[in-house]
Design the sequence.
């Protein structure tokens, strides 16, 4: 059996570990052959592939990014897009199945293609940890670690200048990275999309921290909205799947906090550094296990499913279970963290 692997959407630490896990198990246990589609779905629609022998994955689990490249190409657009033409390309290349490694957009496309008759299984990937049906996704632990270290550094300069520091982290429409990194770094306020807050409440938390002799630290998720906002702040247009590119809420909040509290306030957007660099040990292990489990999905013909983490076990779930609902931060988790605010 010849299997094509792709990595699509935003890159994140752990992608290479998935590739390595799948290729090693597939070759050693099932004598399978592997190719990699270059730059995500673009490689699929254009038939742009490279061979993936065992030597090609040697030592890559510790590398960040993806050796295959990625993009946000929509596989249903362009002259070579759509299920019929993609199936013809797979037949021409002798590819029997695809392992699609990606987030919500990637897996939604994989579901549509599977419904049209293509043999595809998925591996969930997102630093945002927002995919339902899996407890954690690889890349999240690394993003939290990077964000926490950066916020720790912001705290020292805030304390030196008696400033309020606002750190904006990734997360799209969920606040998992903000919640975890904010708790780890001892933030005085954590602002997430699931819990809109008024500017007055934010200023109150900041003022309380200042009055206790602290340099206030605010961690905000990029999708956060105040009670006066109708939608998350977006100034970067739409991606290939029609979703807004979020970001910049920290820069909006900083002058509002300063105006209400009289505390000099600075904002820092951590941005793509949360996706870069080497994965943590946890993410390397999780990604490797998911890659190996994806081979089981192929062998068993579990098309239209993705591998997922439930507790400490790897299971197989349908795409629809992962895509029906966004995995948001439960209210009880935010209430737990909010005890530490101010």
Sequence:
């Amino acid at each position: 059996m010849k299997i094509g692997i792709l990595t699509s959407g935003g890159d994140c630490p752990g992608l290479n570990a998935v590739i390595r896990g799948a290729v090693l198990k597939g070759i050693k246990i099932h004598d399978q052959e592997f190719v990699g589609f270059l730059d995500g779905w673009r490689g699929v629609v254009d038939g742009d592939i490279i061979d993936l022998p065992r030597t090609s994955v040697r030592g890559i689990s510790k590398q960040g990014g993806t050796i295959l490249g990625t993009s946000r190409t929509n596989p249903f657009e362009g002259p070579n897009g759509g299920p019929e033409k993609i199936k013809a390309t797979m037949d021409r290349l002798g590819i029997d199945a695809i392992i699609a490694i990606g987030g919500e957009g990637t897996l939604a496309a994989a579901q549509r293609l599977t419904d049209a008759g293509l043999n595809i299984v998925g591996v969930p990937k997102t630093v945002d940890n927002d995919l339902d049906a899996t407890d954690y996704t690889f890349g999240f632990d690394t993003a939290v670690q990077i964000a926490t270290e950066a916020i720790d550094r912001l705290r020292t300069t805030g304390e030196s200048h008696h400033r309020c520091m606002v750190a904006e982290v990734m997360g799209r429409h969920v606040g998992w990275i903000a919640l975890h990194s904010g708790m780890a770094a001892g933030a005085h306020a954590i602002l997430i999309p699931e819990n809109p807050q008024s500017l007055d409440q934010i200023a109150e938390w900041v003022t309380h921290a200042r009055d206790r002799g602290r340099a206030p630290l605010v961690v905000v998720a990029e999708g956060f909205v105040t009670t006066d906002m109708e939608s998350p702040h977006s100034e970067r247009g739409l991606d290939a799947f029609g979703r807004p590119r979020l970001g910049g809420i920290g820069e909006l909040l900083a002058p509002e906090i300063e105006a209400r509290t009289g505390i000099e306030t600075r904002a820092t957007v951590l941005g793509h550094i949360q996706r870069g660099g080497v994965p943590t040990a946890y993410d390397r292990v999780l990604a490797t296990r998911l890659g190996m489990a994806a081979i089981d999905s192929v062998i068993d013909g579990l098309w239209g499913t993705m591998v997922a983490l439930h507790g400490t076990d790897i299971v197989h779930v349908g795409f629809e279970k992962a895509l029906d609902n966004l995995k948001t931060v439960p209210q009880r988790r935010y209430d737990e963290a909010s005890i530490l605010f101010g």
Summary: The mean pLDDT is 94. Residues 140-161 form the longest helix (22 residues). Residues 135 and 309 are 6 Å apart (CA to CA).
